[in-house]
Design a protein that fits this description.
Elements (H helix, E strand, L loop, with lengths): L4 E8 L5 H11 L8 H10 L1 H10 L1 H5 L2 E6 L2 E6 L8 H8 L4 E7 L6 H12 L4 E6 L8 H12 L2 E4 L1 E4 L7 E4 L4 E3 L6 E2 L7 H5 L3 H14 L5 H5 L3 E6 L8 H11 L8 E2 L11 E9 L8 E9 L2 E2 L3 E4 L4 E4 L4 E3 L4 E3 L2 E2 L4 E6 L8 E3 L5 E2 L4 E2 L3 E7 L5 H13 L4 E5 L6 E4 L2 H15 L3 E5 L4 E7 L2 H9 L5 E3 L5 E5 L2 H10 L3 E4 L1 E2 L3
Parallel strand pairs: 1-3, 1-4, 4-5, 5-11, 6-11
Antiparallel strand pairs: 2-3, 7-8, 8-9, 9-10, 12-23, 13-14, 13-22, 14-21, 15-20, 16-17, 16-22, 18-19, 24-33, 25-27, 25-28, 26-27, 26-30, 29-31, 29-32, 30-31
The structure holds guanosine-5',3'-tetraphosphate.
């Protein structure tokens, strides 16, 4: 039986229109009725101070981490990826939980830095991508220039699925190749008999230009090849405008028709197929203090196989503990619902008190671990200085909580007592300080640490590891799991030390074993 789940994310550079498109998708899917809901959030996000306010209010950002809507008998799970580049680690892990992605590109700007980075993550996991070239209602680059740029910069085959009749001031509509239909603003679609149909001349002024361009495009780029798309080698490209709702229906239809249902997931010792009868899944995100009044925490589980039922007892493979999942939650755009059953591709929120962590595997008992959900070596390390010395315990709780969310990493130096926090980007530090005081009542400051990067270390022979660690006390620390970590001033020092200690493996990422 083929699945009716479509679990996907939208990737884009800030300002390309991800928030607007999300909102229109949810509107089209009947998931929200109030325009403006998602919008306000996008605008808030861009401004640092507002973003922090949102972060403190929490409720909004969490209910929208996953948005589920049902349309034409299909269940769409749209996973939110944080837009700011400082949160690329979180984004990376979110992309491990999707089966496909929509890449939004601003027609005036083409491929931008963040789009490219996110694309690379998708490529790493062969996540298939549908492209939406947004803002055709404004002047932009020519459709050919845009298609060529995607092909060249991303080394991806492109195939246009529709074509804009003019752009910006000359925009008249979109011609849909598959349907052989013209879509004009505020007009019903017009089905024609191919591009040669003389009726087109009566419908749009740019009919002849459309014919010329479309002929060139159809000849120059290959046609849509579902297999190539699913393998991540070809991207079907839709032109449109999220704001004006041009081409949005066509995009949803394409996700419904072509985006893959839940795929097999990499795991050790064997990959997991969605058809496997037993339930399994992994935690890709943990969000704490959604409601600062209670210290609740939601772990987001991507169901990978089996048929999950509420009340099931699942084994947390990393600890061997068994957990009864009694109140799993589904996230609809504005509501939460108790999840009675969940199928592969679904995302359920599991309230817990810090037991579940990012990277955890849950199964019905089998010893299995999903792979490729790493922690990344931090690029900024800071010592935490407590401004109120009576709050040592609270500080520890707060830092542990946030490390469990995967927002920051926490290192305990083998010598000395001050915790060191590690983050991938500067903005995370500001969020951390703000949350320490807002959510935990712990006033704190950061002090520069004599280190700025970290590597997890290991060795074939435990004696080698011990000798290495003994030789450099102050640069040694443990992460939260007690795994040994080498703290270094910079990449240069890592290289220098690594060259002289060939028996030690230095790793910039770590997966929970
Ligand atoms: P993001 O989440 O990717 O950061 O982008 P977002 O949707 O917030 O959109 C960024 C800006 O681009 C917004 O304008 C939005 O209105 C505009 N936009 C999105 N889609 C389209 C489109 O199809 N056509 C045009 N012309 N503009 C579009 P803003 O001025 O930054 O915000 P606002 O003042 O409109 O709220």
């Amino acid at each position: 039986m083929s699945s009716d789940r479509r679990t996907f994310a939208i990737i884009s550079h800030p300002d390309a229109g991800k928030t607007t498109l999300t909102e229109k998708l949810l509107l089209a899917g009947g998931a929200i009725h109030l325009a403006g809901e998602v919008r306000a959030r996008g605008a808030n996000r861009r401004a640092r101070s507002d973003w922090m306010k949102i972060e403190q209010q929490r409720g909004i950002s969490v209910t929208s981490s996953v948005m589920t809507f049902v349309r034409d008998g299909l269940t769409f799970n749209l996973l939110d990826t944080p837009g700011h580049e400082d949160f690329s680690e979180d984004t990376y892990r979110t992309l491990t939980a999707v089966d496909s992605a929509v890449m939004v590109i601003d027609a005036a700007r083409g491929i931008e830095a963040q789009t490219r980075k996110l694309f690379e993550v998708c490529r790493l996991r062969s996540v298939p991508i549908i492209t939406f070239i947004n803002k055709v209602d404004r002047e932009g680059l020519s459709p050919f220039a845009l298609l060529d740029e995607i092909a060249d910069k991303l080394a991806l085959d492109v195939t246009p699925m529709n074509w804009p009749v003019g752009m910006g001031g000359t925009y008249e509509g979109l011609f849909d190749f598959g349907r052989s239909a013209l879509f004009r603003p505020e007009q019903p679609p017009e089905q024609v008999d191919g591009l040669g149909d003389a009726r087109l001349d009566g419908l749009v002024e740019g009919a002849q230009l459309l014919r010329d361009e479309a002929e060139l495009a159809l000849g120059g780029y290959g046609g849509f090849d579902e297999q190539a798309y699913r393998a991540g080698d070809q991207t079907p490209v839709f032109f449109g405008s999220a704001l004006r709702e041009y081409g949005v229906e066509a995009l949803i239809d394409a996700i419904a028709a072509y985006a893959p249902p839940p795929r097999s997931q990499p795991a050790a010792p064997r990959p997991v197929l969605p058809e496997d009868p037993k339930v399994s899944g992994f935690i890709f995100k943990v969000q704490a203090n959604m409601n600062p009044a209670h210290r609740d925490r939601i772990a987001f589980l991507r169901v990978c196989s089996g048929r999950f039922k509420r009340g099931m007892k699942l084994r947390q493979v990393q600890t061997g503990k068994t957990i009864a999942i009694n109140s799993p939650i589904f996230f609809f755009a504005q509501d939460r619902e108790l999840a009675e059953t969940a199928l592969p591709g679904d995302i359920i929120g599991i309230p817990n008190h810090g037991v579940l962590r990012v990277g955890d595997t849950l199964t019905e008992g089998e010893t299995l671990t999903f792979t490729g959900i790493p922690n990344f070596a931090p690029e900024i390390l800071r010592r935490v200085r407590l401004l109120d010395p009576t709050k040592t315990k609270q500080l520890r709780t707060a830092l542990t909580d946030m490390a469990e969310e995967g927002v920051t990493q926490l290192f305990k130096p083998l010598i000395g007592s001050q915790w060191i926090v590690g983050v991938v980007g500067q903005l995370q530090l500001e969020v951390l300080i703000s949350r320490l005081s807002a959510e935990y009542g712990v006033p704190a400051e950061f002090e520069p640490a004599p280190f700025d990067t970290a590597r997890w270390i290991s060795a074939e022979d435990p004696a080698d590891l011990k000798a290495f660690m003994a030789g450099r006390g102050s640069a040694m620390a443990e992460d939260r799991d007690g795994a040994p970590v080498f703290l270094a001033r910079d990449q240069w020092e890592v290289n220098y030390v690594a060259e002289r200690a060939p028996e030690i493996r230095f790793s910039a990422t770590r997966e929970r074993a």
